[in-house]
Every structure is written in C-alpha cells, then in structure tokens.
Amino acid sequence: MIPTKQAHLHPVAITHPGMSGKNNEDQYAISAYTLTEDNPTPVVLAIVADGIGGHNAGEIASEIAVNEISDAIADSDGSEPLRTLIKGTKQASASIREQSKAKMSRQGMGSTCVCAMVIGEQLYITSVGDSRIYLLRGGKIQRLTTDHTWVQEAIDHGVLSQEEARDHPRKHIIHRYLGASKPIEVDTRLRLQDGENDQEAEANQGARLMARDQILLCCDGLTDLVTDEEILSITQKILDQENALEKLVDLANERGGPDNITIISLRVPNEAKEKEKEPEAKPLSKTALWFYIVCAVAIVAINILGYLIWKGWLGN
C-alpha cells in the first residue's frame, strides 16, 4: 500500500498515564494509505495496544505489537485485510514471546491489542484481550469486540450480571493476550447487534460505515471506570472529538485513574456538510444560453471575415 498524509476519516487520539504514577505502557498508531497507484481507494488503520508486565516490559510488548501489525499492513496490497491483520497480530505475539524469553527483565511481558482497518467505507476489526472497539451510530453505542476475560465468560454463561462484573475481583484476569506461551487465537467477531452468534458476528466483517459514524478504540483504563452509556453521552454532547476524548480521560482520572488510558476516535465525515461546501453549478438560463451562442457565432464570423480579407478575396 502507499502511505498518505491525509486520512479519509477524521482521526483523533489521546493517551494518558493515569493517576497512579506508573509508566505509560500503552501504545497506539493511526496510519493512512491508498491501495495502489492504480487504485486510489483510501485506507485507515488504527491500533491500540495495552502492555502488561513489570519493569516497563509492557511498554516494550505494546510497541512490538503496534510496529509488527503496522508493518504487515503497509507491506500488503489490501486485498485480504482480515487475513493480513491476523497474520500481523500472530507475528507480533511470536516476537513478544521470543523477546520475553531472551531477557530476564522481560519475562512474562505481553499486550492486549485491538485493530480497526477501514478500506473505503468497509470496516474490518481484530481483537486480543480486553481492549475494546465501539461503533457510535444514530445516538446509540455498540460494543463490536468481546472481552477475553474470566468475567466475560461468566457473563456469557449467566454466572454474573453486567453490574456484578464491573467490580468483581477477577475482572482483570485475561485469558488471551499477545506474547502468551501458546499460539494465540485472534478474535474476528464484529458484533453489530447484541445476541448475534459467533458465525453471524464474523460474517459482519467488511460492514459498510455510514456518514457521521464514529469508531472508538480504547484500553481498559477507560472502560473499567467509564460506562458505555457515559462514553455515548459525552461524545454526543461534545461534538469536537479532541475535547470529547479529553473529557473521557478526565472522568476516568477523577475516579482514581489507576491505569493508563488510551483512546482513538475515527469519525466518518458528514457527507451533507461536505456537499454544502461545494455547491453544484446552476444550469444556464435560456437567455444566458442564447447570449453565449450568439457570441460564439459572432467570434467565428469575425475570424472567417478576417481570414478572407487577409487572403485578398474581399475588399478590392
């Protein structure tokens, strides 16, 4: 793919270490491309990775995740976006695992990771861990990803309610992350509606985005403290994306901010407003049309007359 400076979606990102004094082990990236020189279809890739592990090793793991996946996409032709995202994520996991073995200080490091890739109007996502991707559309918020946590499994099996899960002591136990000792399974479910089974969710890959849709990627430093409903409310009330993300971070920090907080927003432009900026040309009136025709005929006649005089065929 060909890198470009201008994305066809409106991207905004923010990251904050939180209030605990810990190092910021989150990493994120937003990249814009066109498919090929012959195919100018625009592409945007967004990644959020939340590192885990002591002695700053989580920061290394999340950086590896972002770099490996970004490189995999940049080197592709965009023809198989989901397959490329999966391949890049698995490569990142293997690299983290190998580096974890190489140094004592990096043992046990890992990272969660969510990716959103938009080709033209089509959305593709992957996830590993408990970072999330949301779709905000028409005054509603839909969580597209599924957390790979103990509490999420308990919710799915009816053991816990959503309310019970929020403050459960096991809510931070994740069973899927990059750098795990066994090869990871990359989640390709894209849940556009609650109640969809896994096959239906996977079939949603390549879903078409609409004008004014907003894709939000974030780590659990936000979602542990700010509810889905609050995310929706703030992004609706504060139309400026940068200010809205700052408000979300502030809210998480006001509630203790024990973890790093990273958010990426991708907003589809409002097509109606774009068209207003470039008004369509009005058709000519009949009077104006006849005026231009007469002028054109007169110009042609003058040129012909001048040519005849120059040849000496007229005037003597």
Indicate the topology.
Blueprint: E1 2-3, E2 10-16, E3 26-34, E4 42-52, H1 57-74, H2 81-102, E5 110-119, E6 122-128, E7 132-137, E8 140-143, H3 150-156, H4 162-166, H5 198-203, E9 207-208, E10 214-218, H6 220-223, H7 228-237, H8 241-254, E11 261-267, H9 271-277, H10 286-311
Antiparallel strand pairs: 1-3, 2-11, 3-4, 4-5, 5-6, 6-9, 7-8, 7-10, 10-11
Helix pairs in contact: 1-2, 7-8
Q: Can you offer a commentary on this structure?
A:
Helices cover 38% and strands 22% of the residues. By secondary structure, the protein is of the alpha+beta class. It folds into 2 domains: 2-277, Phosphatase 2c, domain 1 (4-Layer Sandwich), CATH 3.60.40.10; 281-316. The strands form 2 sheets. It has a 6-stranded antiparallel β-sheet with strand order 1-3-4-5-6-9, with helices on one face. A 5-stranded antiparallel β-sheet has the order 2-11-10-7-8. Helix 1 (57-74) runs antiparallel to helix 2 (81-102) and helix 7 (228-237) packs across helix 8. It is elongated. The relative contact order is 0.15. The model is unreliable at 272-282 (pLDDT under 50).
